[in-house]
């Protein structure tokens, strides 16, 4: 009996050992899967150098770019973007094109406006990594309970860091309207921003709002026990070799999270290069890799518009394709840009004049980025040529007259071509006219091509493209023409509110 018992005991030990081995294998496999999906990723490809002290230069050809095509981009700036100060192109880590226009220079520090937002986002990511902040799900009320009281709209209690980062806090706001002016002129920017009327539930609607970016800076200052600029200097600027950045403050001394940063064009290129390398710099993680990835993917649809096209928004970064490639950009008013195209190992930096009333828009700069990306030698998909549709004689005449007026900048004819009932998303006829007349110089040589014409009673739905030697781009998709007193006129959806 004892022998039988010992054999049973041995079999049980073998069975238990097998089970333990099986469990161990399952757990090990599961852990490896977890690391693969959630753990730290490997640093990107090795670089021959890092531009901490300064950029190394190279010819475009040595880095797989066409220098002749780059000259076309240069020509585009001189002909279409006269307010541009600088264009820098970094390919494979080398500065392959650097040119300054007008008052621009390598040592000139540009007011980069809303590019500041993308820098603020990077600092939030660093603070999360260092444990100063817990998660993007932390609520605004945790940091400023004194401004969200029992009398406040209950929806304010749900506003999180993520909602601030994605411009979806739900505040009633117009970045170019009275709400911006009232906030800017107030004595307490943090309080005024938080106490804005609540229009939507947090997370529902994108609404571009510089005051929410400023709240991120306020949250940062409270969490790190110092100020945003000193934190940026120590943890971002100095590791990248950015020496002389300046940053404006609000009336209470908080560094402005949504604008107010001054950087050189080369500094902008460094920030782009940092993000291109997933937050790594010379073997060191500066901005967490996971944060870079989350910040630069589509978090919320931002703009879908007949002129501007479709943009998505990440964490204070715009997401839009460039020459068919996935790309993201930091975008400041009046033409301040960092454009990163990871699959082409490409960074583009642009600075521009900031003191004119009517800025150029996406339709003016996006062709520039496409032109630069097209210089990268690679197999590109063949584009079908634009095909014009046949138009009735009276519509054809109307389009031709309008196009000529646009080229000649004839405001009187342009005004007459816009319906008195031009009203879409709060845009008046006068606002539309102002936009079209002020921006016509950037696109005046482009030919109008109508690719769609659908007639319904006294309304016509058309798709309008602009084409010239530099680009072809959708201008007004799904636009309307209406008959007014027997004459065709533009109606609605041409200009963003």
Q: Which features would summarize this protein structure in a list?
A:
globular; alpha+beta; single chain; Nuclear Transport Factor 2, Chain: A; 15 helices; four-stranded antiparallel β-sheet; disordered N terminus; eight-stranded antiparallel β-sheet; Beta-lactamase; 19% strand; 497 residues
Walk me through the structure.
The chain is an alpha+beta fold and 497 residues long. It folds into two domains: 110-373, Beta-lactamase, CATH 3.40.710.10; 393-491, Nuclear Transport Factor 2, Chain: A (Roll), CATH 3.10.450. It is 37% helix and 19% strand. It contains 15 helices and 17 strands. The chain has an eight-stranded antiparallel β-sheet with strand order 2-1-13-12-11-10-9-8, sandwiched between helices. The N and C termini lie far apart (92 Å). The relative contact order is 0.11. Residues 1-15 and 17-43 have low confidence and may be disordered.
Question: Summarize this, please?
Answer:
The chain is of the alpha+beta class. It has helices spanning 2-38, 67-80, 115-129, 140-143, 161-165, 178-185, 189-194, 210-224, 228-240, 265-276, 289-295, 362-373, 393-408, 411-416, 429-443, and strands spanning 84-91, 94-100, 110-111, 246-247, 261-263, 280-281, 284-285, 300-305, 309-313, 318-319, 328-332, 336-341, 346-352, 447-456, 459-467, 472-484, 487-491.
């Amino acid at each position: 009996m004892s022998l039988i018992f010992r054999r049973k005991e041995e079999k049980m030990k073998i069975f238990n050992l097998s089970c333990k081995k099986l469990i161990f294998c399952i757990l090990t496999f599961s852990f490896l899967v977890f690391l693969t999906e959630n753990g730290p990723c490997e640093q990107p490809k090795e670089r021959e150098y890092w531009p901490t002290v300064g950029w190394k230069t190279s010819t475009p050809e040595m880095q797989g770019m066409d220098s002749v095509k780059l000259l076309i981009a240069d020509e585009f700036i001189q002909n279409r973007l006269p307010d541009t100060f600088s264009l820098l192109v970094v390919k494979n880590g080398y500065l392959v094109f650097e040119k300054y226009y007008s008052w621009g220079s390598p040592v000139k520090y540009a007011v980069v406006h809303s590019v500041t937002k993308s820098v603020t986002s990077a600092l939030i990511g660093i603070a999360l990594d260092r444990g100063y902040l817990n998660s993007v799900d932390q609520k605004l009320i945790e940091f400023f309970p004194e401004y969200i009281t029992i009398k406040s709209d209950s929806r304010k209690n749900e506003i999180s860091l993520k909602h601030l980062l994605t411009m979806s806090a739900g505040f009633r706001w117009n970045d170019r309207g009275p709400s911006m002016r009232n906030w800017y002129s107030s004595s307490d920017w943090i309080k005024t921003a938080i106490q804005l009327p609540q229009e939507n539930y947090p997370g529902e609607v994108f609404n571009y709002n510089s005051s929410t970016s400023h709240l991120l800076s306020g949250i940062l200052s409270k969490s790190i026990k110092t100020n945003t600029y000193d934190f940026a200097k120590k943890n971002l600027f100095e590791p990248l070799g950015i020496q002389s950045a300046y940053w404006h403050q609000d009336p209470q001394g908080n560094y402005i999270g949504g604008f107010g940063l001054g950087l050189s064009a080369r500094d902008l290129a460094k920030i782009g290069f940092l993000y291109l390398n997933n937050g790594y710099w010379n073997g060191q993680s500066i901005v967490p890799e996971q944060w870079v990835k989350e910040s630069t993917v589509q978090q919320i649809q931002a703009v879908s518009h007949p002129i501007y096209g479709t943009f998505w928004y990440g964490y204070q970064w715009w997401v839009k394709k460039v020459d068919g490639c996935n790309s993201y950009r930091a975008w400041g008013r009046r033409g301040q840009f960092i454009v990163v195209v990871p699959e082409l190992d490409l960074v583009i930096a642009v600075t521009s004049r900031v003191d004119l009333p009517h800025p150029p828009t996406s339709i003016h700069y996006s062709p520039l980025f496409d032109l630069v990306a097209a210089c990268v030698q690679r197999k590109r998909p063949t584009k079908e040529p634009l095909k014009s549709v046949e138009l009735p004689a009276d519509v054809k005449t109307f389009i031709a007259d309008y196009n000529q007026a646009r080229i000649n900048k004839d405001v009187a004819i342009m005004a007459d071509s816009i319906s008195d009932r031009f009203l879409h998303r709060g845009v008046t006829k006068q606002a539309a006219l102002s936009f079209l007349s002020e921006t016509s110089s950037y696109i005046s040589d482009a030919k109008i091509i109508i690719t769609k014409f659908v007639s319904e009673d006294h309304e016509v739905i058309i798709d309008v493209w602009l084409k010239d030697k530099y680009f072809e781009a959708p201008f007004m998709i799904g636009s309307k023409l209406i008959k007014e007193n027997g004459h065709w006129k533009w109606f609605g959806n041409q200009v963003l509110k």
